Amino acid sequence: xxxxxxxxxxxxxxxxxxxxxxxxxxxxxxxxxxxxxxxxxxxxxxxxxxxxxxxxxxxxxxxxxxxxxxxxxxxxxxxxxxxxxxxxxxxxxxxxxxxxxxxxxxxxxxxxxxxxxxxxxxxxxxxxxxxxxxxxxxxxxxxxxxxxxxxxxxxxxxxxxxxxxxxxxxxxxxxxxxxxxxxxxxxxxxxxxxxxxxxxxxxxxxxxxxxxxxxxxxxxxxxxxxxxxxxxxxxxxxxxxxxxxxxxxxxxxxxxxxxxxxxxxxxxxxxxxxxxxxxxxxxxxxxxxxxxxxxxxxxxxxxxxxxxxxxxxxxxxxxxxxxxxxxxxxxxxxxxxxxxxxxxxxxxxxxxxxxxxxxxxxxxxxxxxxxxxxxxxxxxxxxxxxxxxxxxxxxxxxxxxxxxxxxxxxxxxxxxxxxxxxxxxxxxxxxxxxxxxxxxxxxxxxxxxxxxxxxxxxxxx
Amino acid sequence: xxxxxxxxxxxxxxxxxxxxxxxxxxxxxxxxxxxxxxxxxxxxxxxxxxxxxxxxxxxxxxxxxxxxxxxxxxxxxxxxxxxxxxxxxxxxxxxxxxxxxxxxxxxxxxxxxxxxxxxxxxxxxxxxxxxxxxxxxxxxxxxxxxxxxxxxxxxxxxxxxxxxxxxxxxxxxxxxxxxxxxxxxxxxxxxxxxxxxxxxxxxxxxxxxxxxxxxxxxxxxxxxxxxxxxxxxxxxxxxxxxxxxxxxxxxxxxxxxxxxxxxxxxxxxxxxxxxxxxxxxxxxxxxxxxxxxxxxxxxxxxxxxxxxxxxxxxxxxxxxxxxxxxxxxxxxxxxxxxxxxxxxxxxxxx
Amino acid sequence: xxxxxxxxxxxxxxxxxxxxxxxxxxxxxxxxxxxxxxxxxxxxxxxxxxxxxxxxxxxxxxxxxxxxxxxxxxxxxxxxxxxxxxxxxxxxxxxxxxxxxxxxxxxxxxxxxxxxxxxxxxxxxxxxxxxxxxxxxxxxxxxxxxxxxxxxxxxxxxxxxxxxxxxxxxxxxxxxxxxxxxxxxxxxxxxxxxxxxxxxxxxxxxxxxxxxxxxxxxxxxxx
Lengths: 461, 350, 223
Fold this sequence. Notes:
The structure holds three protein chains of three kinds.
Chain A: H1 2-55, E1 58-60, E2 63-65, H2 70-76, E3 84-90, E4 95-98, E5 115-121, E6 124-136, E7 141-151, H3 153-200, H4 216-266, H5 270-306, E8 310-313, H6 314-326, E9 334-340, E10 349-352, H7 354-371, E11 376-384, E12 388-394, H8 405-408, H9 422-432, E13 436-441, E14 447-454
Parallel strand pairs in A: 9-11
Antiparallel strand pairs in A: 1-2, 3-4, 3-7, 5-6, 6-7, 8-10, 11-12, 12-14, 13-14
Helix pairs in contact in A: 1-2, 1-3, 4-5, 5-7, 5-9, 6-7, 7-9
Chain B: E1 2-6, E2 14-18, E3 29-35, H1 39-52, E4 56-62, H2 65-74, E5 85-88, H3 91-99, E6 119-120, E7 124-126, E8 130-137, H4 150-159, H5 161-164, E9 168-171, H6 177-189, H7 193-202, E10 206-208, H8 211-220, E11 225-230, H9 231-240, E12 244-247, E13 253-256, E14 259-261, H10 269-280, H11 282-291, E15 314-316, H12 329-343
Chain C: E1 2-6, H1 10-22, E2 26-30, H2 33-42, E3 47-51, H3 59-68, E4 75-79, E5 97-100, H4 105-123, E6 126-129, E7 132-135, E8 140-143, E9 146-148, H5 152-163, E10 168-169, H6 171-178, H7 187-200, E11 206-211, E12 215-220
Parallel strand pairs in C: 1-2, 1-3, 3-4, 4-5
Antiparallel strand pairs in C: 6-7, 7-8, 8-9, 10-12, 11-12
Helix pairs in contact in C: 2-3, 5-7
């Protein structure tokens, strides 16, 4: 169950990280927006006040003058906690009224557009507005400029409040979003948990496929598990059938041997005893062969599941294995041959289990010797096409009729005196190599067995 | 040990020494309170404060509102300025000082008990409730029908020149900060104010620096009517002298609050804060109500004023930037010029 | 010939012992690996037949210690493991041959003969098989006492075949051993030489069998 946890946590953490990134970027955006909005709102107060003041500017006989309307400062006073500074001056810098020491931006030229700037003044950050008006009189024409500054307390508070409200909303959305994510993860994992539950509560003998209507994403997993269950069941079934077969075959065989020996011991004359003993010996030989083949078959099937195949040069393996097998058949009058149709000096690699190939060849040759008659003619041909490598074994024996080709590949399907395992072993080897097995009639009228292997690529495994 | 000093306008300063906490062994901290408040009005409060905080010696200096403003303003950057607490009834001047960045910001303990209009920026705290009152000599005006509004008052003065000629007293607003403050608030509140001023001028109104001077003269009958006298002083004076009547016009009554702040230059900010905290505390407000002439701002404290202000629209002047309007030099000059030309129109006296 | 049989299954040991005895060999039987190892240290045998799974000490270990001492006595492994892996048992590992149980006694006897011949052929100057005698020193071969005319290269070839009975030899193997580097033999020449030698050995037990596409294998026909 730890795996479930970690998957869930991993999803949640990555989603939370995503949310956090979004949250931070939105927060930055909101902060800049809130500052702009605060400035915008309070700048209007300053503008309004400046406008009201400039409206009262007039030219008197003694020069320009201005009367600050009560409402102008009241208006700015709407920002309750902020301090206010102002100065009204002419283009040549003469202060008409207000604080003389207010900071000005460099190279300020009076004009009738409002100009805002932020600076530090009197120990606090202050936002200033400068706005001018051209006064035309009979004998006088000059700019009069109003400068109003306001500390940033209300603006900051406004921006902060906006920020806090927006963030609260965002956090709420995030929490709800993560809640949805959590819900979604659980929903998404539910089928997996369902599978896990089904498998956990299963009896060891229950090989039924997992019953679930899977979402598409989990379907392939379910299919794989079901496939595995099926293969496992098949393997177990095979093993059971095999054990039953083996038990049957060996018991029968040993029973016959025992019967013959018993009969031999009961014969009164020597000639009959010898005949029985001869038969018993033959039966013993068959039993040995049967046992060997049964074990060989089991071994091939076992190796197919457990032994990884190795990338080897095909012809080398065939030569070594064939040369080795031939030694056991020297006493027969047999013509063995290998015909290598591969290009010389171009190595052809195949993923091979050498033990398997040895067993397959040995059984094919054994069959040829067993069912054929002298002089035997057993030929091996190795050739290759675009992507496949062919191993052909031909003999001059009696061959097998085409309609029986399928059945002889099954266990204990012999038509003669044999165990019927030889070709089943070859089939198992072919299967374990993902090779195609094809039985036909050879040119000499015997059996022609062709195994088609996939050529392993340059990099091999 | 406390000292009270009063620096009058051109008067010889005098010292009032109070032997309160003698024999106290601890190191005494001196707390300089500069205030435009009659010493007699605050004395009981200061005694009470010193009783609560024996380690603090209050050194009290009394100023006229304008003087106080100028002294503080001119010492804006002077670290040697002694003031630890600045108190004045002229809200506009106080706002101007605070707006200049002079005040120390702190959270007063009892700020919640103070109405919003009477505090600003956590720097300036109002502690008293001060309506502008009309005072009169009861004997002189016996039988005269009381004016309802400012306009009625204007008509009354105009219609009875023989009764009021030379016998109306009000602030010389060029000299008195609080006088200027009341006058400008009148102008804002009532566009008929110039008529009233003119009728005062025609009646040869006399101008004074301080409420006390007006009250003294109304008491003696030298003046019949005193206009825009600070209400608390008026009520206190009326209690002392039954010949003085206190009256609030029914159309509106300008009400201000005496405010206090701690200058940034203060060397005893902690003690100053304790002083203001005590001033705003229930206990301090009760002392104001019971023992001093001042009227506490805390609405929950019963005051002598309560019966006077029933059913009268009270115009509470709000602390804030708006008060700077009439502190603009150009505007102030033009206002004073207008006012003077009205009040002196028929030879009113300074 | 003196043969040591190391086998812990008594019945099997007895039958093998009987069979080899009828072939005229002297058989010593040992069922414990440790004891067998001690025995091999002190006595010389002409052939060792041994099982792999033994009490005391495994067949592999016995074989390893024999070869480590430089004991070149031929070893024939009897194994019940059908998964013969050359790298484990392998002829490289020091064993000369192996045979898988259950054992066909006739096959076993034949293998034993081959190994013994190989050894005597290499060890002594005279190699005998049935009516065939080859004197290595004199470089003469006789069948039924009649001399077989052999050229120098044919003698070399015969020596190679006798030394590699029942082993597949490619034409290249033969050419490398018979010709020197500068002679650059053609494969045809090798074929012709083998054909000639085969003809000359007709009537004898030595059979040179051709496996087309692979090479030659020499074996001795059963008497």
